[in-house]
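queue> pop job 88
queue> type: inverse folding (structure -> sequence)
queue> payload:
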């Protein structure tokens, strides 16, 4: 076996999986590993279109050290890839047949450094089965929290204990649960699979069995201090975060990053800007979009607002700003280089959907959160932010289920005036940075994983 491990990295082709697995690939490459990254042809075309037009702002980009390869996902360009079951079934059928030939092709081009380990994200366990048949080790990189990984690890126990229904995954009773004695309580209605439907839960059960059987490690973009209870549930769970790739390398994005927002931030006073972004999947109902827009006007503060195409549920996939919205103190972009934005000294806080990638970005940047979760594990991430780490606040809905402009203004003013939350945010920033420093727990765990892959 080569002393240099060669990783084949295969994410589910949605941005919330592709980005963290690309970040992890860049970290592995920085540690001297060989990395081949497998994207679907459709996702790779989309990413190339976005990145090729967004690099003019920064001409210092280095050559990507990662070998990029593609396979078809089995769908046509016109097919709807927002239907998860159809996409996953097509990927499994098409890519599993073609993967052995791709592995052979990659190995033929790297005779002295054969693929030694396949790393997948959730729902891509079929690739570990292919690797297992070829004698290749397997590991899982979770794009969500260690708590989400732990809940998957416990799914069969939750069924046996009568907490969730065996066919739908929905809670059987209205009660809070605790996955382990040293974990916060949670509402089983917020378990990761509950908003995705009965068919997806069946897929989740099958996938969890595959990952448990063939994934030697369940790697998590977190630190032990952030989620000690979850990480203690299984020796498979290994904290390696926060993932920090080389800033001169592109991350994979499906939208063009608007780099002009960095120049705009340079012109704002320190800790003055409200940054608003709800990730790559959340869709906002038009009335709520209106309240948010008018709420930002009410704040009377500079704001940077990411309104990606398809951010609202209009059938034409465009957003419509409400009558009376001025927006004169803000800048609105389709997509932003988020980590650079959050680390900018002008940014005061982060209005976030609390997806795990954004949560880790915010914690690493030491920025307080105003939490606006939409679905799935985002509710649990919010609970950590507000109740466990105490670095943010939530928003309350009115009797119509809306977060009003007045509520946004009230909570934002309260958040920005809370020095305890600000202090906690800076303490957690120091904690996570120490984890990836030489000798830190995440740093040592990463070495442990790489050494395992060398064996």
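queue> result:
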């Amino acid at each position: 076996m080569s002393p240099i491990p060669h990783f084949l990295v295969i994410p589910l082709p949605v941005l919330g999986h592709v980005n963290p697995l690309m970040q992890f690939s860049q970290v592995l490459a920085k540690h001297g590993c060989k990395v081949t990254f497998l994207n679907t042809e459709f996702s790779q075309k989309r990413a190339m279109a976005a990145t090729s037009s967004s690099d003019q702002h920064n001409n210092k980009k280095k050559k990507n050290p990662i070998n990029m390869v593609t396979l078809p996902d089995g769908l046509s360009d016109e097919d709807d890839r927002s239907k998860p079951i159809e996409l996953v079934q097509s990927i499994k059928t098409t890519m599993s047949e073609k993967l052995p030939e791709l592995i052979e092709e990659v190995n033929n081009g790297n005779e002295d450094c054969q693929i030694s380990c396949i790393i997948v994200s959730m729902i891509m366990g079929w690739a570990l089965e292919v690797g297992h048949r070829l004698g290749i080790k397997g590991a899982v990189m979770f794009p969500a929290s260690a708590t989400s990984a732990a809940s998957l690890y416990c799914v069969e126990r939750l069924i046996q204990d009568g907490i969730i229904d065996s066919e739908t995954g929905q809670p059987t009773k209205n009660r809070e649960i605790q996955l382990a004695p040293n974990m916060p309580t949670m509402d089983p209605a917020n378990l990761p699979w509950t908003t995705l439907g009965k068919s997806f839960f069946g897929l989740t059960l099958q996938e969890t069995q595959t990952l448990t059987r063939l994934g030697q490690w369940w790697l998590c973009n977190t630190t032990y201090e952030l989620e000690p209870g979850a990480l203690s549930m299984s020796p498979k769970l290994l904290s390696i975060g926060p993932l920090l790739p080389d800033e001169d390398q592109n991350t994979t994005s499906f939208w063009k990053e608007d780099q002009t927002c960095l120049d705009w931030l340079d012109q704002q006073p320190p800790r003055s800007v409200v940054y608003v972004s709800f990730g790559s999947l959340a869709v906002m109902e038009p009335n709520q979009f209106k309240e948010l827009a008018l709420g930002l006007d009410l704040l009377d503060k500079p704001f940077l607002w990411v309104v990606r195409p398809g951010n609202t549920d209009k059938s034409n996939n465009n957003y419509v700003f409400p009558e009376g919205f001025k927006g004169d103190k803000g800048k609105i972009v389709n997509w932003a280089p988020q980590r650079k934005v959050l680390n900018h000294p002008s940014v005061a806080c982060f209005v976030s959907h609390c997806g795990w990638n954004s949560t880790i970005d915010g914690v690493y940047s030491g920025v307080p959160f105003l939490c606006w979760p939409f679905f799935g594990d985002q509710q649990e991430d919010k609970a950590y932010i507000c109740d466990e780490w105490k670095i943010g606040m939530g928003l309350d809905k009115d009797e119509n289920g809306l977060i009003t402009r007045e509520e946004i203004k009230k909570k934002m003013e309260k958040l920005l005036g809370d020095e305890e939350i600000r202090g906690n945010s800076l303490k957690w920033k120091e904690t996570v940075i120490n984890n990836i420093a030489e000798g830190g727990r995440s740093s040592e765990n990463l070495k442990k994983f790489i050494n395992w892959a060398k064996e």
